[in-house]
Amino acid sequence: MSREFVMGLDIGTTSVKACVFDINGKLISDVEKMNSFHYPEQGWSEQDPIEIERSAVEAIKEAVKKASIGKDELITLGFSAAMHSLICVNEEGSPISPALIWADGRSYAQAEAVKKTIGSSIYSKTGTPIHPMTPFSKLLWMKETSYKPYEEAVYFMSIKEYLILSWFGERVIEYSMASATGLFNPATLDWEPEVLELAGISREQLSEIVPPTKVLSGLKKEVADEMGINQEMPFVMGAADGQLANLGIGAILPGEVAVSVGTSGAIRQFNKGVKIDESQETFCYSFTADTTIVGGPTNNGGIVLQWLKDLLNDERSFTEFLADAEKVAPGADGILFLPYLNGERAPVWNQQAKGNFYGVTITHKKEHFIRAVLEGVTLNLYQIGKALERLAGEPKKIYVNGGLARSPLWLQMMADIFEAEIYVSESHHSAAWGAAWTALVGIGKVDSFEEIKRNIPMGNPVLPNKENSKVYQAIYENYEKLAKNMVQFF
Questions:
Q1: Average pLDDT of 97-125?
Q2: How far is the C-alpha of 106 from the C-alpha of 243, rounded, in Å?
Q3: Percentage above 70 pLDDT, the chain
Q4: I need a labelling partner for 248 at 20 to 30 A (CA). Which of 106, 333, 346, 402 fits?
């Protein structure tokens, strides 16, 4: 019997990753290609879609070669992608603008104007907070500023859609990526007419909405040859990286929460049906026709620790840097840190939010600040989690992935602050494995999404320290008060 392998292509903001797995979820090879960023003006954040498409092709090619597998042994590929990117595209399918990514804040004024007027009404239909991250807000900015590529565009799409158009000649988008645009209604599974009218675009300028299990065929021969794969191999739509990170780590049943912390971070939970938060602190994005994911993203994860490390001119490894925080007791001797250095999405949804150290005295040292920053990032996630709990109930299990999941200190801090057992996969490629599993469902190789639970290598859970948890509950009360009071100064 011939061997069978599957690939997950994870089109992230920082990089494109191609991961080859066997059918049981064992990682065989992985290749990462870094993406470049452009910042033409303060608050703008752009990427080159052509560069990313080339990186994806190279990553697939190198991952197949690195895995030492034959063309016929790779049976399918699933897509995962970062949300909220927007590209203006011409009739020929070529980009006529850069990709404006989630971190682009140029539409702040437009987003604020909508929030103050009809924001609640729009949010109640789309489940997507009104924020500069969304393509909806970006389109408002393009419309109001007479952005030339917007006026000349025939189509509007994400980076993922652009790759699929380039490789297959199809304009398709699945439920989760459509949800993330802010132009989609998860209750109707269709584009929302009122929002399209506000953005000044038509449904013909957007892609056809399809399920995550839709099979793509007809890969262009020249692309297949460059990738070194079989032209007839089926690709599958997959989903957004958040949904697939939950799937890939096994957080798919009621009460199972996933926390991802890399450069940024998020906390998410799957639900049946649509659950819109009246407080507008969380998002509700579709995954399948009857399943949504509720949660909140933060702009400020590992990037905040990198900022502190650079600020302190600390040239040690991250492991050594974070180890200094172990010298200090929970609470960092009174320092509270609001981690809004990059503006913030959940829970405040304010691009103008600023970071803040509170309670600093002359006795505090470097290790106190390291501990305070690490705690601030985690307390912010906990605050988002409390909003999620209102909609989805108290979490029964918490699964963690992302770069910070490699830190035993941070995992223990998570367990203590959330007062829960923390489960960590032995693989750090949850979104890619989720994409690969979706592909297996799409081609009928496996029967359901739920079956993935038997194919995730998990380590031993991290248990909370009860004494630390008591300390952190008191600290969180002060953190929450500080966070709410600081809003008036943003």
A1: 96
A2: 27
A3: 100
A4: 346
Residue whose pair of structure tokens reads 């690939």 in the numeric block: 7
Q: Are strands 99-100 and 46-47 parallel, antiparallel or unpaired?
A: antiparallel
Contact 487, 348 (CB under 8 A): yes
Residue 438 CB neighbour total at 10 angstroms: 32
pLDDT at 1 over 60: no
∠ CA 353-356-358 to the nearest 5 degrees?
145
* Nearest by Cα to 279 from 393, 129, 134, 478: 129
Q: What is the mean pLDDT of residues 140-162?
A: 98
- Confidence check: pLDDT of 427 > 80: no
356: its two tokens = 């803040």
What the block records as the tokens of 82 is: 């970062």
Which two three-digit tokens encode residue 19?
């991961």
Distance, in Å, from the CA atom of 216 to the CA atom of 172, rounded to the nearest integer, reads 10
Question: What are the CA-CA distances from residue 436 to residues 83, 115, 159, 304, 429 (Å)?
Answer: 18, 38, 19, 31, 11
What type of residue is 81?
Answer: A
98 closest CA partner among 145, 142, 34: 142
Nearest-angstrom CA–CA distance, 35 and 49 = 10
